[in-house]
Automatic annotation (TrEMBL):
Protein species of origin: Mucilaginibacter xinganensis
Cellular component GO terms, alphabetical: cytoplasm
Taxonomic lineage of the native organism: Bacteria, Pseudomonadati, Bacteroidota, Sphingobacteriia, Sphingobacteriales
The family this protein is said to belong to: Belongs to the peroxiredoxin family. BCP/PrxQ subfamily.
Annotated function: Thiol-specific peroxidase that catalyzes the reduction of hydrogen peroxide and organic hydroperoxides to water and alcohols, respectively. Plays a role in cell protection against oxidative stress by detoxifying peroxides and as sensor of hydrogen peroxide-mediated signaling events.
Catalytic reactions of this protein: a hydroperoxide + [thioredoxin]-dithiol = an alcohol + [thioredoxin]-disulfide + H2O
Keyword Phosphoprotein assigned: no
Protein name, entry field: thioredoxin-dependent peroxiredoxin
Amino acid sequence: MSKFHQTPVYEQEKIQLQANLAAMISKESLEVFNEDADQLALDYVSPLKLSVGDQAPLFHLPNAVNKIIALKDLLNEGPVVITFYRGNWCPYCNLILNAYQRILPDIKALGANFIAISSQNPDSSLDMQAKQALEFEVLSDSGNQVAKLYTTIIQNAVEAVDEAQKLGVDFYSFYDDQSREVPVPAVFILDKNGKVLFAKSEGGDYRLRVEPSEILTALKLSLSK
């Protein structure tokens, strides 16, 4: 289909990101973050709370400018792609949301909407939206009240939070609480009736993410049925 753009490959772009990180921060800091991700991979292999065929819970959440966005209203327009992410402070979240932004025209061409959800406060969501020039809604799920219905909620390790602080990243400044709770990254595609068409997480290792191509393939498959 010639109208579709070249689809970014997250795994390829991650190689450059990791090279950049290795050049920017110390080996010791990288070891803290990588050990954290390795442990999360072992602890959270199957984090999803919903499966294909399930009815997705409806929700209302504020966007980056505190406007309430209702899932039901989006579903009235067609299928909805939902991604849960950790936060601005996570370079892998920035990378994957940037990749999803680049396939947004293709998602729209397939008649779907796309939203990203984290437990960050709206100000942090606005910062994320501006920094990445995101044209989709970035919603704030305080306390992970919605996320916990879709994916597993974990407590970000103190060691990782403290190491980030040493590098000038104040984890707690992005949130309205001190819980350190974040969702395991996941992607869901809902049909216009709210039924789950696609549900995937790469598990607790936040360095791994659902490829943009998988989202487009799933949407095209749903249209062919």
